[in-house]
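This protein record is not my work; I was only asked to verify it. The record follows directly below this note.
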Amino acid sequence: MIELVTTDSFDEVRAMVNEAFASGTIHPLLILRQDSRFLERVRVAEAILADNDGTITSGASWIAAGKFFTDPRHTDAETAERAWYYGLHEDGEHFWHDRKPEDDADWAPAEAAWGARTIMRLAESGVTRENIGAAGKLLLPRPGVHRLFDRHRARAIITFGIADVVEGFLRAHQLPSADIAGFRLVYDDQGRVSSHHPGSCVTRACKGKAALRFLASRGIRQEHSFSVFDSVVDRRMILPGGVSLLLVPGTEANSSLQRFRNMHVETLWDHGLDALLVDNDFEHLNELLDSAP
């Protein structure tokens, strides 16, 4: 069973999330903003706009692709840069004048550079198209994703991740088809990664624009969209008039990733987030949607 709570107070939200984690055993919890009509609006939404890494899969496309690095120095550098990225949200060390990034204009070059450097390492390691497809198989869908996607006639995955890995992930697990916005790889004539497409580089700054362009291409109004994601990186996916859900996966409660997520829940709530799901998957949410009048 899942507990359903409504509130407009972020202090209550924070207290409920902390209590859910304190026991060490996650009790599924869905927190709704008062008068959000969340379940009703999700049931009638025509389009789902989903983040990939950490949301519809507990894994990350960058890490999955990095399994095919052939030089240990690449792995070490990637680990160090990931730690640097998460650290930027706390102290800004080694950023411009050692200050925290303040807005999307600050974050865009940091995120784009990190993605480009990872792809450079994939190229230097001779990673192939087949390797990238195999990386997609390493990602496992959260239970309930298939049913959640099937509820909507139009589906888009908008990710600060590698689009080609996400394609392999959908294909390997026979998930419903979806348009994908992310870093798209370029391959040489022998099928090896050579770079990324310069016009396909998705950071937090352009996630909202990608969502709007997808909806426009399908003739769907923002009011008929449902956005689901797991962190402040996805803030721009909270569309005016649309319905939004933040997933807080319980199994990662004590990890550095969960700490990064939890630091910015208030930012998302203040930005108009409709609901917060404390759960490891989407099965309980699907049950609620099935039973809603």
